[in-house]
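Folding Problem: From Residues to Backbone Shape
Fields: amino acid sequence; protein backbone structure tokens
RECORD BEGINS BELOW THIS LINE
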Amino acid sequence: MAQVLYMALPVPAKPRKPASWSSSSKPLKLPRRTRGTNTSIPTTAKGSGKRLLKTQKLNLEVSPHRAVSAVRLMRIEFGGAFADLLNEKGKGSGENEMGYVQRTLGFRTRELNHHDLRLVTDIVGGTIRWRRYLDHLINSLCLEKDISSMEPLLLQILRIGFYEVVKLDMPPYAVVDENVELAKVALRPGAGNMVNGILRKLVVLKENGTLPLPKVEGDDRAQARALATLHSHPVWMVRRWTKYLGQEEAIKLMIWNNSEPSFSLRANRASGFSRDDLVAQLNALKVPHKLSLHLDEFIRIKTGLQIVIHAGLLKKGLCSVQDESAGLVVSVVDPQPGETIVDGCAAPGGKTLYMASLLSGQGKVFAVDVNSGRLRILKEAAKLHQVDGVITAIHADLRTLTDNGQLKSDKVLLDAPCSGLGVLSKRADLRWNRKLEDMEELTKLQDELLDAASKLVKPGGVLVYSTCSIDPEENDDRVAAFLVRHPDFHIDPVDRYVPPDFVTSSGFFFSNPVKHSLDGSFAARLWEGYCTSRTDILISLHIKDLNEIVSKFYFTRNSGRMMN
């Protein structure tokens, strides 16, 4: 559940109507066009030859990538869309993209070309990552108004302009002129004048090296606030990471989260498509790539994902976008042909599909998920990847399946719902959607799901608990609490399944974004058997070399005792 999987997603709701920039409660009238080349384009209803009464206005002077970026940012902030929303065409909502522009701005621009699409991806992702930083600068330069009362569309246009000037180093004259034009056409002339004045002021400050940024000084709280602004993260995250990692490592982590994400492709062996085949395809498409150092089916790419999508490799089921950290979690599960495996929170299905492919057509994966829509996508992906013969989808809450004896399996993977703090580089919007209060709710849910998952493990079987979080409260602490509640489970060190660089002192798998240049993730492998006491379990959590425990002792369920 924790990994990011690229496939068609439900289109989010239309953004709410923006509030007025002034203190008046009157709604903003969008749009008021005063200039630009507008051409009326008659449209027809889909599937019919009837002409609609309304026409669509085509504006050829407004920068298309800025218009689309502004609308997509509105959708993400107010409509619940994701910054990484992609389909096989790599256009977010595909053919509907200009429809959103038309409904939000009142006009259409020319269609996006590949260069425009790349700019949209860079601007939207970067603007979301640097939102707190950008808002600080906008607030500092917009002295007359607090941006909290600003029209949402105007704020998005300013964010785009500030990001282009400060982070992308685009030519200032182009940034100013084109964002001013967008504000005038989509809003009104006065909005364009305001954008013009603020952006010109920003350009001067940047050229002089005098941007109004906070200094990291004062007590811990003051330093955390300054770092949160400089590195554009919520203050609670900065304080939490400083507590667990120290300030220096916390800064490194935030720098990683703000960097351009890289992606990994997994060749689908079930369809007879090897990594060598994928390499040949990438070479033909001239997409730069590197072989994974850790997994045989994986390839890393820094750029060119749009090219891969357009070439249809994902749509044909030849490969999928999946981070190596997710693949290493599957390595911890170690699926073997003939085994039965329960994936307790399966959707959207990246790990499910990978596990199924490793069964070589022998065995069964029960994919359980509470979300019927996401489960339907998983079933379609399973068919596409030619592993539907070994996957059985079950629409249910895992916590209600504990009395189902038919699901007792050799292995159970619980890829639990989590904060996602390990994937903030790819999920740029997630940092603004998480609150500190979420952590308590999540850890409670994780405990409940772990208890439920444990009841589906056959005697002597394996339970793997994983997250895409780097937070110890969601990882090590959940395992420790579970072992106290369930003395019949104990730690099976993962050093037999993943490279030693990923193995913690407690025998768990952990990928560190800064250290490994992968998404942050965690996995604990627990096997069902008897120990002499709960004390043995708690001691084992703090012994550095768990291999010594495994080699020295043999646990047996039949005798219920620990033997040399």
